[in-house]
Amino acid sequence: MSQHLIILPILLPLIAGIVLLRTRAGSSRHKRLMSALATILLIAVAVALTTTASSGEVTYYALGDWRPPFGIVLVLDRLSALMVLLTAILALGCVIYACAGVDEEGSNFHGLFQLQLMGINGAFLTGDLFNLFVFFEVLLLASYALLMHGGGKGRIQAGLHYVVLNLAGSSLFLIAVGVLYGATGTLNMADMAVRLSDIDPERTGLVRAGALLLLVVFGLKAAILPLYFWLPRAYAAAPAPVAALFAIMTKVGIYAILRVYHLVFGDHAGSLSAPDQPWIWWLSLATLTMAATGVLAARDLRLLIAYLVLVSVGTLLAGIGMRTPDATQALLYYLIHTTLVTGGLFLLAEMIGIQRGKAGTRLVKGRPMHHANLLAGLFFLGAVAIAGLPPLSGAIGKVLILQSAGPDQQLWLWPILLLSGLCALIALSRAGSTLFWRGQDGTPGHTHVSRCQWFGVVWLLAASPLIVVFAGPINDYTAATAEQLATPETHIRALLPDKGDES
Amino acid sequence: MTLAWIPLLTLLGVLIPVPMERFGRRLCTLATATPVVIALILVLSQLPMLLSGGLPHFSLTWIPSLGLDLAFRLDGLSLLFAVLILGIGLLIILYASYYLSAEEASGRFYAYLMLFMTSMIGIVMADNLILLWIFWELTSLSSFLLIGFWSHWTDARKGARMAMTVTGAGGLALLAGLLLLGDMAGSFDMGTVLASGEAIVADDRYPIMLVLVLLGAFTKSAQFPFHFWLPHAMAAPTPVSAYLHSATMVKAGIFLMARLHPAIGDSLLWSWLVTLTGMATFLYGAWFALVKTDLKAILAFSTVSHLGLITALLGIGSPMAIVAALFHILNHAAFKGAMFMNAGIIDHETGTRELDQLGALRHAMPMTALVTMIAAAAMAGVPFLNGFLSKEMFFAETLYTPLLGGLGWLLPMLATLGGILSVAYSLRLVHAVFFKPARRQPPKTPHEPPRLMRAPAMLLVMICIAVGLFPALLATGILELASTAVLESVPELHLAIWHGVNLPLLMSLIAIIAGVATYGLHIHLKRFVRQFAPIDARLVFEGAIQTIASIAHTLTRRLDNGSLQRYMSWLLGGALLLATLGLVQLPRLDGGQATHPVDGILLLGAALMIFGAIGTVVSHRHRLISLLMLSVVGLVVSLTFARFSAPDLALTQLSVEVVTMILLMLALFFLPQKTPRESSAKRNIRDLTLAGSLGMVIASLNYAVLTRDIDSISNFFVENSVPGGGGHNVVNVILVDFRGFDTLGEITVLALAGLAIYKLLNRLRLFMPHSDGEGRVWSPDRYPMILTSVSQTLLPLALLVSAFIFLRGHNQPGGGFIAGLITAVALILIYMARGVEWTQSHLDFPYQPVAIGGVAVATLTGLGSFVFGYPFLTSAFGHFHLPWLGDFELATAMLFDLGVYLAVVGATLMILANLGKVTTPHRPRKDDSRAGTQQPQPSSKEPR
């Protein structure tokens, strides 16, 4: 089985999804067990993949036994392994949380959830540009269905914006892939990189158009200003475990930007290298600014967290905008942190909302909560982490990113990033004080909190202190990942042994 | 390792109190105090090593790429502060056990307190700049929890947030400053940083770094103009005020300045900034201490004032000034700690802190009165007490500093003025509380507190007296030790009460006499002050925050206004801009490839397509017409495929077109026939421009691509289709073999679309129009006879065609996808002719399993290759011979194609059935006889 390891992160959820979806009816207990088991297995697979990848070797899996560049390949390197592992860890928290009852609010939750995982993992693993498009579609449709889970006006409205914008994005993706294929004659990313290194200069304009169109698509997915407007409402409306899982969705966009503009449009592409650079840097700063404004403006806890997701997107993109191995290393660490913590916070927000009855997650006075102390403690933990205060992971990530900025970049990045942290601090302290401290009248409602919910939240939020404690080894890994990303030659040589030397 | 145990012990102390709470307050207090005592002993056990000139040190690598090590040091300065933190901490723990009422959560309180203690210890022992910052911010967090401990009280909540925001902001500035500092020194290691002072001061970035670091220190130590949070932090329980806001946390800023003094303190900029800020704070705080009427507010402003004094000394920066600063830190901690504890006792026993309601308490609380009076005297700088000594040193330093040059007299004058105010407010406090008769009765009848509650304050006051009397014996040692950490050469210390008659002594005398006089004139002062409207920093702060929030809200609303059209225009505008940037670099659009000659048919087709496209847009408000126009485009596209010899594409396009059109029409049924005019003319122009230019750019891209020859991988597919894939139809082989993985993904997408639509429509109940746009009632003849019979006849035929198309697919135009669509079309026809209920009762199988089954078949086919040791989806094919039927070919790819077929049929029917189902239950019926028979069982069946 070990030779098939690379495809397992796709096949495992696919098969689980098929089994779960074969009928809509069926015992929810079996479905939950199955879904949770599949996710746990996925973690095991991801751990195995990460161990394999950490040797630094790039390996690939040729589907249908068609060698690259002709067939589709899945490529395993440090980055893809890391992303798959992160997804699996996040997914386990979400899926267990969902078992508390969210999954029964509509149909097919677990099956759709697994297919969503398949889409995400596929996007992280594929080495083929068109196949990336296919997986973008899988995860888009699955996420749309999950967003609708449970129904309700808010979800349908937010879902409409989400799906329409993303379908338009998909069309642009197709056009971009078409242009790039037309200009280079290949779809395999490594092969495209090779072909770009000696491309007819007459065509560079065409390639650049395709490359920049891709940036629009990835920017939409990553939620960069001015393309992020679909995000706050969709994330705030989605059922908690879905919103939590969506924490990885923006990272798919981030991943795609990292992958494509390092592998395909790396230094070897001459004048075509890093066409995203001038755009990403300034837009990331703008994203940070506007997201921080949104954080201050939010009057609902879930909306607040959604804008905090955008702050993290801005931070990550700023890291990409600097385009140095140091910055990449820093942003990868930050990415791990922000994905897990925002995921946990979305789950926590729903628990708080349920406890507060009618007031829900709106930041107004509400009825007192059962388990107020425990919830408050978890909220404090999550807030400290996400606001980037020590001693939790956000601070480490932020300091890493601040430190990786060059002298010219410091001038812009430092004030904006630090002030966005201050905005988060102000907003979160207001939110926390309103939710947990403000004198609450009435009696707490008798809402049952299931052990699954506690597990989900704790599983994700506990990651924050853990990745601080193990920051040393994690940083070693991310540093090696950044190094690998900055030298696409290894990647190309692994896939195309006879062509790699030319570049 | 011993060093690491000190913070570790206090950290463990965080975990103790909450579980211990149930064993009673006494035990809980004891258990909490234990680790502190051990830590204190550990600190003191390092003394011999320190005295022999060593530097206890501990280091553990943590994040090398960040330059962050878990490194601690215990030099003299750290030791001084550590003793202060742990020692006063112990007293506070004891005091708090009496202060908190029985029903209050003392466990939680102690846990927060220990967390705070840990972070303070961390700050003073950190041997790494980033580690220091981590603990620094931790003090802000733990103080947030402590100030907000009485969270039901709005003052506490707001005070906590204010303190957190101000010190948090300062902390962020500090981070930036420390990162710069580390960059200048080349390391975050404290030893290295302290040793590279000259290089740092010479660096270009020094001023920025200094300002940032000082911002951190000033906000923390409540220096003017960032002092305003401190008085409001007094909403905290008094033990917290005594501990955090007088003895320790506010000294963190001072500590930082002292700690970094060797590295960053040797510049004129430092002296100016720090001294002047310190002096301003000194005076400002003293003035407000004189006019406030709340006991704790007076103490808070007095603290601000004393912090200013220490800061000014650090700014002056001469060796003696540094020693004086350290000395005053100790002294202030002692007398102010005692003052706060007594204020808490008074508050606790009388129920008020307002000077109006207090008075003549010396009768009820003689011991407390005595202790407070001594502490206040120390605060005022009365001789024979510790405060006198350090204040006199301060006066001396202001006299001798060359800082202001010709204006050198200004500093001593201001210092004396501050001294006068200090005496006045100390006197006022004592007099008003203990001597003057109260104007109103306090809420509770005052009496002395339990002895042990008084003990901590008494102990502190005894220290004040002892140090005041025997300074050389008690203070010299520790001060010398502490100053070695800051100064290269420690000056000879002559701490004594009497230095002979000199200027500083004169200044002290003036301060005391004029101070008493000032208090005498206090009543006039009061009148003077009343003319000014009081400014409540809390209101200003809250107002500011709220204004910021509402501005942010407006801004966000303006940008993110909920309009899909706007979001879309950003997306398309972005695509337009970026694609254009690429296109303009193209030397010429035409790539030189010969174009196909144009003939009449092509022209006609092109004209039709353009007409259809424009018609779609023009008629978009009449949805049905618009849709028909769109279908014209689709048809012409499929004809185009056929014309340019792509029969597979043509077939696919045609069948996709048919199915989507029918589904769209079904959906259209629920929408108004006409769209109201929603866009303004301006918006129309914007959209037209955007759409038009994007269309042109995309068309240009297309043209550019199509007129260039490519050396693509497709040749490989053509060559390998038969030998490798076993099929003559390259398109189909690509779909099911070369790129079968894509197809697997796409049929998953299709199935997902079906599931998503099911989710969307499942609970939707829509209004059913019973007439069309012109008001004509829909025809009652819902299931026309002819259509019914035709559709039924057509079904087997269509299935046959599907089978045919499916089977030939691998070698000739066709395949699972097209076959699936054809089957779907036939089934749709039945639906339309017979209605949902009839169809579902006759075609009695659920659709979701069909769609999912399709994906399953395809996946299983792919998995099959695992058995033979090949990668997923590796195909195999072979030629077989059967009697009668002759030679034929079997390929695993056909099995895969079967999966595609099933997925397409299943997904299409899922969509169809759900769209149809939305209407059924509500449909108003004209025909009563049918309604009678069918009404009872509408959606009783599980939707498909």
UniProtKB/TrEMBL annotation, chain A:
Q: Nucleus among the record's keywords?
A: no
Q: Can you cite a GO biological process for this protein? A: ATP synthesis coupled electron transport
Q: Does the keyword Cell membrane apply?
A: yes
Might you report a single GO cellular component term? plasma membrane
A GO molecular function held by the record = NADH dehydrogenase (ubiquinone) activity
Q: How does it sit in the membrane?
A: Multi-pass membrane protein
Task: List UniProt keywords, sorted A-Z.
Answer: Cell membrane, Membrane, Transmembrane, Transmembrane helix
Domain NADH:quinone oxidoreductase/Mrp antiporter transmembrane, by residue range, is 127-418
| Compartment list | Cell membrane; Membrane
Pfam families on file: Proton_antipo_M
What does the similarity note say? Belongs to the CPA3 antiporters (TC 2.A.63) subunit D family.
The name this protein goes by in its record: Multisubunit potassium/proton antiporter, PhaD subunit
Which species is listed as the source?
A: Aidingimonas halophila
From TrEMBL, chain B:
Record domain MrpA C-terminal/MbhE: where: 683-765
How this chain sits in the membrane, per its record, is: Multi-pass membrane protein
Task: Respond yes or no to whether keyword 4Fe-4S is given for this record.
Answer: no
Residue ranges occupied by any MrpA C-terminal/MbhD domain in the UniProt entry: 608-673
GO terms assigned for molecular function: antiporter activity
Task: From the UniProt entry, list the residue stretches annotated as the region Disordered.
Answer: 919-944
Q: Which InterPro entries match?
A: CPA3_Na-H_Antiporter_A, MnhB, MrpA_C/MbhD, MrpA_C/MbhE, ND/Mrp_TM, Proton_antipo_N
- Membrane-spanning segments: 6-24, 36-56, 76-97, 109-126, 132-150, 162-186, 206-230, 270-290, 367-389, 409-434, 455-476, 496-521, 567-586, 598-618, 625-644, 650-672, 684-706, 743-761, 782-807, 813-833, 845-873, 893-916
- Identify the Pfam families for this entry: MbhD (PF13244), MbhE (PF20501), MnhB (PF04039), Proton_antipo_M (PF00361), Proton_antipo_N (PF00662)
Q: What is this protein called?
A: Multisubunit potassium/proton antiporter, PhaA subunit /multisubunit potassium/proton antiporter, PhaB subunit
Which UniProt key words apply to this protein? Antiport, Cell membrane, Ion transport, Membrane, Transmembrane, Transmembrane helix, Transport
Q: Name one GO biological process term.
A: monoatomic ion transport
Q: Which Gene Ontology cellular component terms are annotated? A: plasma membrane
User: Which residues fall in a compositionally biased region of kind Polar residues?
Assistant: 931-944
In this protein, which residues make up the domain named NADH-Ubiquinone oxidoreductase (complex I) chain 5 N-terminal?
A: 63-110
* Cellular location(s): Cell membrane; Membrane
Location of the NADH:quinone oxidoreductase/Mrp antiporter transmembrane domain? 126-396
Q: Na+/H+ antiporter MnhB subunit-related protein domain location, by residue?
A: 786-909
